Amino acid sequence: MPRIFVNSQLCILIALFSTVLMGEVPQHVRVSIDRITGGQGAYVPDDEVYKVVLPREEATIVWDYQTLSPNLGLNSWVAFKPAIHKQAILTGQLLLLDDEVDSVMSAALNAGLDVTGLASSSVFDGLHLHTLDVNATGTFEDLAAGFRKCLQEVKQVRGARGRPNGVAPDVPVESSIDPTSLDAILSMKGGVSEGTYHAAIGSDALLHGEQVGREMGMSIWISVAGTNDHAIAHGEFIASTDDLQKVLKAFRAKGISVISIRNHTVGEHPQFVFIQFRGEGAASQLAKAVRYALDAQVGYAARSPGRD
Fold first, then answer.
1. Domain at 179-303: CATH code
2. Residues 139-154: tens digit of each pLDDT
3. Cβ(271)–Cβ(240) under 8 Å?
4. Domain limits, the chain
5. Cα gap 143→121, rounded to integer Å
6. pLDDT digits (tens, 9 = 90+) for 178-219
7. Which among 303, 180, 136, 277 has a CA at the least distance from the CA of 220?
8. Spatial separation of the C-alpha atoms in residues 280 and 286, rounded to whole Å
9. Distance between CA 205 and CA 299 in Å, rounded?
10. How many C-beta atoms surround the C-beta of residue 125 within 10 A?
11. Which of 76, 87, 146, 268 is 20 to 30 A distant from 114 in Cα terms?
12. CA 179 to CA 308: how far, in whole Å?
């Protein structure tokens, strides 16, 4: 019993020490965050968090004659809190339109932010919306500057393209993919059905203490439709939480679009994240991009930068 009492006291002391060590976000830092992000934040003393909410006017438009309130959550936001191991920790979410996702994700990764989630956020007819989740640790100013780069990328896209419109992929209706070169590039054995190529490799995991694998959904797969010269690829990567950033960077380096980042299951071991992707171009180049991501996942691409 005395040992339990001592351990309880120790836990309380550690918690109190951590709270004192972290402290609040200083006033001059709040001013700096507002200046860098271009927003007007608010301090929440109970959580020791400084949060900036950035409404997106474009996201409130349903049709030309109808708009929604940004209070429906149609905004981006970023929050800062003092940390123990680094000066600060950042969490945030960017509300993006279809044609902003690729370049903003690249901007976030290049700025040193971890991208941890991507999902559709559209609930009404109108523009397609997506939420991109980010987090990172570092200094307050560096974190704010990293998030600012994402906001600047949004402005650059909108300034260059204006209001977005949906665009269908320009690929042949009839598919006639030759699997031979794709199998060689991917080091997989795929199949062709009605001219469309499909291949998959599995990973092992424990779910509720039971072993599951490829046919239970723990797999990397790719489908390629169209022709060898002009194809569209769609697929899904399975990655550990440690590998997630490597795979995202590899996809963006090769021009592959990320559609979503999500969990399929809860409680599996190791924890897996599923990354849906798409790309358009020559079938062999799409396969090489996926091969590059596979190599990056196991560290081969980092050792062999010249690999195509």
1. 3.30.70
2. 999 999 999 999 999 9
3. yes
4. 22-161, 179-303
5. 25
6. 999 999 999 999 999 889 999 999 888 888 788 888 877 888
7. 277
8. 7
9. 21
10. 8
11. 268
12. 19
